[in-house]
């Protein structure tokens, strides 16, 4: 079994962005390519969880959400990746944080310990459940939440043993996530 696998979530609707965020460009590359590179530098293999209309490079392993939970949000994506690829731990990242820095992933990975089943980033007191490392043992818990239609990441965190890792203001830029065209235009100018 792999020690750590990567999960790149890109199967969202991008409804606030009005087109697919995964293919927005930053520094000459698609968002998904940036995130893929950042995750892949820390794990043995990365799995992309996309929806049917999305295409990725041939060398990238891509799956869809399992049919039962298709399009039910990030939890559905994490669950689908965990059952598709066996690993001890999973680094999870969203597709809409193009400035995310490799050192953040390194720090989260370093905080794994046997007492916890999740290591989650926090910046300026804001929890970032999709910038995290999760243990495979939570797969059953996620499944129960999905069945119960409890789709919020925060309600999952409430029942896990989580180590929160605080990042400083210096890292705030890296955690910017892009939901709207306005945010995209603003952040790309800075
Ligand atoms: N695989 C998968 N990923 C998802 C799903 N919903 C959201 N994501 C991903 O989770 C991350 C956070 O998504 P959000 O920004 O909250 O949602 P979104 O659907 O992409 O955008 P909005 O429609 O504007 O809310 C992004 O990387 C999304 O691609 C889903 O149902 N399945």
What ligand species are in this complex? guanosine-5'-triphosphate
Number of H- or I-type helical stretches: 6
* CATH top level class name: Alpha Beta
- Poorly predicted regions are none
* Rg over C-alpha atoms, rounded to the nearest angstrom: 15 Å
Number of domains: 1
Structural class: alpha/beta
- Let me know the number of strands: 9
- The CATH topology corresponds to Spore Coat Polysaccharide Biosynthesis Protein SpsA, Chain A
Spatial strand sequence of the major β-sheet: 5-4-1-6-8-7-9
Report the end-to-end length measured between terminal Cα atoms. Answer: 42 Å
CATH homologous superfamily title: Spore Coat Polysaccharide Biosynthesis Protein SpsA, Chain A
């Amino acid at each position: 079994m792999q020690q750590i696998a990567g999960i790149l979530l890109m199967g969202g609707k991008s409804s606030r962005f009005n087109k697919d965020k995964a293919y927005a460009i930053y520094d000459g590359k698609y968002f998904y390519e940036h995130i893929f590179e950042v995750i892949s530098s820390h794990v043995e293999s990365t799995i992309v969880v996309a929806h049917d209309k999305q295409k990725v490079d041939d060398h990238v392993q891509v799956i869809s959400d399992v049919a039962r939970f298709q399009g039910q949000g990030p939890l559905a994506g994490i669950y689908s990746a965990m059952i598709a690829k066996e690993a001890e731990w999973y680094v999870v990242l969203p597709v809409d944080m193009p400035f995310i820095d490799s050192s953040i992933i390194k720090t989260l990975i370093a905080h794994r310990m046997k007492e916890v089943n999740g290591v989650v980033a926090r910046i300026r007191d804001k929890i970032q459940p999709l910038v995290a490392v999760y243990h495979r043992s939570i797969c059953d818990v996620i499944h129960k939440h999905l069945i119960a239609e409890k789709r919020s990441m925060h309600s999952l965190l409430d029942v896990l043993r989580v180590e929160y890792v605080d990042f400083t203001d210096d890292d705030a830029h890296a955690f910017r996530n892009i939901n709207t065209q306005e945010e995209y235009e603003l952040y790309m100018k800075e």
